Amino acid sequence: LLSDVITQIGFGIEKFVPTLTSLLLAICEQAEEVLVNNIKLLSMKDGDEDGYNDAATLSRIGKIRSLCFLRIADVLNKFGSTIDFCARGCRLWKAMRTSVDALPNTVINADNAPSLLQLIEKISSNRSLIPLLEQSDESVVAVFKCIAGTTRSNVMSCVLKIIDGLLTDGGTLDKDEPSCTKTTGQNLVLKNIHLLISQFTIRLKDEAQIANLDDEILSGSNSSKRTKVQHHGLQLNILCRVSELLVSAEETADHHVKTMEDLCKLLTPLLKFDSHPSQLELLRTIKSLVPKLSADDAFLHYQGLSKLLGPNKNEIGIQSKEHRQLLSDAVGAICCLQGTAKTGSIIDALQGLNSVSTSYVDEHNFDKLLPVINALGTSSDSQGSWLQLACSESESLMKVSQCGDPRLLLPLVYTCFHLLYDQDGVVSRAANKALKALITTCAEQSPSEPDEVRNPWFKMAEATLVHSLKMGISTKDSTVRRSFVMLVSFVASSFNGCASERLFGDLRCLVREDDQELDFFLNVTHVQLHRRTRGLGRLRKMLSSDDQCNFFDQSLSNVLLPLALHPIYECKSKAEEPFVIEAIATVGIIAKHLKWSKYNSTLQSVLANLPRYPDQERFLIALVCAILDAFHFSVETGDSGTQSQGNGVWRTLNNRIIPKVDSYLVKEKVDHRGNRVTSLRPSIVLALMKLFQKLPVRTFEVKLPKLIATICNALKSKDSNKRDVARETMSKMAVSLELKYLPMILSELAVSLSEGYKLHVRSATLHS
């Protein structure tokens, strides 16, 4: 009734608001007293003869109290700006004391926000009502404790709105303009900021679990997805504003520093390889937090921030000049914490590589960029070279061996990899030269003794250089890919004879400095098509001539296999078909030497890409057949050959690979009349049969009848061309099978082709 009165009459009942508020508070006080007394009586009873009635009474009282909270929220929301409710604050919180204490428990796995939380949200959204929260510290603490791993999206959204209201003084403060003095709401947040950060830490650790839980409830509707996006954006905005509030605090106590460290640990993983405006705010926040941290804690974020300056896997990464400059400033702030003037050399070099022109939009400042990147490409003893920068830092900061510590060079390394994608040929070539100089320095500084694992230059080559090169080889830009391939060739030559599998020393045999026409890496990236075809042909012959592969698994999986796969997906003209056929044959040879995990992932990827690349369908079908023909793993199917028995290879084959390949045995399409027609894919049939022949005999005999039945169904077609394909496939199958399986074929032909024109088809099939 009161809800209707407020809605219909509005400000016409303004003079009755104090009376109505007193009535609502009186009901809350009465409900509070009844609940407390009933809970005490219920806990003192030994028997349960009246337990049901007591529970029902508590439920009714709870519903009445919830309605009172909602009506109080309506009153405060409607008249909070015109009537002063602060005088009734003590009475209000006293009447809700039990509910406030129980609030963190009531939101556990709750689908919607409780009425008390909605009431606090209305208070925090009005600047005149926020002083009410100042009268009850327990209410703010209870709201912060609601940020937990068991809190679902709807409740979390309400909690975030409360915190946002406190930080923005009920939404009256401009988020882009910092205020000179702290408001009441900001002081409330600052007072309990350590609890807030600890609760956010708990929340973000369980973020994946929360998302899965919400998906089950919300069924993935568009509105729920929009709510999640807004929820995450508000959460990020709050963390940034809390960070600014903490940085601007005059206190510099140890617990504040610890809170800032926790905030950095929360915010740094939220940085992504994109140029969204929210990332700018996040970068500014991290930049302001880093100078407040200790040198050791700040250095923990050095590598993570440096990676953001490089490519994003096989793509260019962050291109926004503003984002990159903020990243450079944040990394430079970490360098400054080392407390020596020599860190300026790396900071200056980093800012030079990411400098922006003041005369042209989105252009490099070449006056600063080129001198830095050219100096990095010079010899080790030159000013501005990799070794000179690392040694100056290591001698004064890291206190390590005389060869220097390259860890502080990480942002420069990742920036050079990013510049390989630059469309300006001068910049990309200079970056290529700088990276070659770094590879040479790593090889010179890495010892030849078995103690090389402890050497920081060796670790940089293994962890940073090689990882970035592996990602770059898979890029779709052929021009950029050539740079990465030639860098791999340079690594193989520089680390020739190295025992580590990760440094591609085994690929040295493919490099021919004496005869460039025989150099695999030069041929496979050559502009002439026949040279690329010849390069893959030589690699295929080399792999097929040796019974035992001379290449490490890392080289096969991360270098040779991606190079052979690219032509299959990139073929656009008929002239490239010989190159594609050679690439398919090369992949088939490489697959014979792969481990099961890589073999499985490659085959699964090709099967998943078949619907995505309709123009390359025939090439991908041939690729699937080549990979299936290369199957070379031992299979244990168990006693009964069920899905739950056997080794991992068999379970993957039986549950995922074979059913997926079966779906491509027959191709469906629509003819010119709109009718759906099917045609047999003979290459898939024969490849599956060869795969089944490598399985145990019992499993082979179980799988074979389905293949025969598929061919017989194709023989029923009234299209003579399709019957010819099916008949030829059946004859090839019969030739490759043992004689004891011929009765199985004849029996299926007799059953399937038993009338009309099918009798003539059966005779022709038997004759073939």
Structure in words:
The structure is a single chain. With 768 residues, the chain is an all-alpha fold. 65% of the residues lie in helices and 1% in strands. It has 37 helices and two strands. Strands 1-2 form a two-stranded antiparallel sheet. Helix 2 packs antiparallel against helix 3 (51-79) and helix 30 runs parallel beside helix 32. The protein is flat, with a radius of gyration of 35 Å. 37% of the residues are buried. The model is unreliable at 208-229 and 393-402 (pLDDT under 50).
Task: State the main characteristics.
mainly alpha; two-stranded antiparallel ribbon; 37 helices; 2 strands
Summarize the structure.
By secondary structure, the chain is an all-alpha fold. Helix content is 65%, strand content 1%.
Shape: flat
CA gyration radius, whole angstroms: 35 Å
**Structural class assignment:** mainly alpha
Number of alpha- plus pi-helical segments: 37
Low-confidence stretches: 208-229, 393-402
Instruction: Give the termini separation.
Output: 90 Å
Number of strands: 2
Query: Taking strands numbered 1, 2, ... along the chain, how are they ordered across the largest sheet?
Result: 1-2
**Beta-strand fraction estimate:** under 5%
Q: Please give the largest β-sheet.
A: 2 strands, antiparallel
Q: What average pLDDT do the residues reach?
A: 82
Helix fraction?
A: 55-70%
